[in-house]
Amino acid sequence: MTTRPVPPTPPQDRFDHRMTVFRSGEEFLAAALPFLTEALAATGEPPPVAIVAPANLDLLRDALGTDAKHVGLVPHTEWYTGSAANAIARGAGYLTENAGPGGRVHLLMEPVWGGRAGRSPRETAEWIRYEALANLLFAPLATTALCAYDSRVAGHAIVAAARRAHPDTGVYVDPVRLAAELDAVPLPAPPADAERLPGPAPSADAVRTWGTVQGLPAADVELFATAVTEAAGALGPLDDTLLWGDAPACVCELRVARRVDDPLAGFVPPPRVEPEPGQGLWFARQVCAYVDVRDEGERASVRLQYG
Hints:
The chain is α/β, with parallel strands linked by helices. The chain has eleven helices and ten strands. The strands form two sheets. A five-stranded parallel sheet has the order 1-5-4-2-3, with helices on both faces. The protein has a five-stranded antiparallel sheet with strand order 6-7-8-10-9, with helices on one face.
């Protein structure tokens, strides 16, 4: 690889969240190579990592030449393997285990918009939320991330939405405002025959029994029941608990006697793997396909969809 030297940049102390859009291999390299050159010149950092499409990994290997051995190359299909909340957990875990002091590392990241993230407006909204909330979650860290969007796969609407989640685009929107816009889309009303569980908190046994009747396999029943009870424990006394749906799309709505004002509720990684008091929403977000929080006056509803 032949590139112009990049002078070392002053150390940063906050998350540097960038975005680039490409529509060809040449455009991808035109953005990726200067970013990786900057990373390799940075002092006090571990090797940069490129988490991109397999075809783009091949382009990088050829273009980097002998420098390729100094860059982590990861197929994005091996990184983005679940929900947006799973991606947050993986990113946080990687930074904890591999980043330099203060979280210093350069990450080139290409979302899999041809997979789960782009398969429906529902999924797209979750991933745009992830991009927006990353600005808050990782704000204290000196991580530099370049999110690469292939417009041939993502399309104009997704690219336009993603620009609003990246501070370097000129159309950046405050993450809390952007999350509120996504939450303004109303959820379908619970069906009239939804099962109502008594008490201020759902019983794990009651959820297990209901999930088994609806057709969830035993392992999934256990995960769903744990997600429901952990989330309920984190939220406090409930006004109501409703259950509906058939496997795998089993749904539980927890109606809370207070607002849940924190946009990061359930997104902040816990210090330990095992759930602790107050961390139940994190567990629920990791095992459920969707967790929707809606504040309604002085109350809130938290809807968990397992599959």
